[in-house]
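COKA1 protein: structure tokens wanted.
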Amino acid sequence: GLSQYSSDPRTEWDLSAYSTRDQVLEAVRNLRYKGGNTFTGLALTHVLEQNLKADAGARLEAEKLVILLTDGKSQDDANLAAQTLKNLGIEIFAIGVKNADEAELKQVASEPLEFTVYNVLDFPLLSSLVGRLTQVLCTRIKEKSNKENADLPVNTGPQLSPTDLKISAVTSKSMHLTWSPPQRPPKKYRVVYYPSKGGSAKEVVLDGAISSLRLSNLTSHTEYLVSVFPVYDMFVGDGLRGITSTLPLSSPRSLRVSELTHNSIRLSWKAAQGATQYLVLCSAAPDGAED
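Answer:
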């Protein structure tokens, strides 16, 4: 599977899209480059929520590996998002090109760093990594696959996944989430939320017995993506996803002008709920320069 990212991550193809090497190579040749910003944290969250789920081709019994390729320093918190993946047993390899921040690569990557962090001066030099990286990846998969997997369920389904996410009590700065727990209670829940237009992902971890949460300190008039994942001892169940927008801040209303003199006017208005101060700007017509 492959995703590109800038401000907004974009899935190019899922894990289940192709079944042969030639098909994958052809897809790479047809790939359109996506320029822009470097929101690596948002991209890692996208991979977890969109690319590593069952209906995108991720198999519960298969080892999960993410290879991050970046040519710049992240503009959001990549470390928090990476730690979330690593806590779920997903191994991250970080490859930097040109202006990548090596300290950040080492924070994002899984241990041991001598096998998971690579850095080259330019894109053509990536070919020099292929042999070693292939060998390391295959070895890591074999090592992890040799661990006992007999207790893992064949699939998740309703027994292991929550249902019926409801978002209510939405204000300009908060919202309330509730969901129906799965038949088998999880060890804990991970709730991940972030602005849909790009921004740092935040997460809250809850005990598995809790099935509601109030998100606060949100930005007003902003669309948020929300995901709820059940976490078990050996795996993560399918997540619930929702989207909603916080309300705009209330505005003052009914502006009135009175008591005009040669050098003053009086303004009055109906108060805006929750406002602690007002900023009043006036300008002289017709140029509109602020005085």
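Residues 148-156 have pLDDT under 50 and may be disordered. Residues 2-149 form a domain with the Rossmann fold fold (CATH 3.40.50.410).

Cheers.
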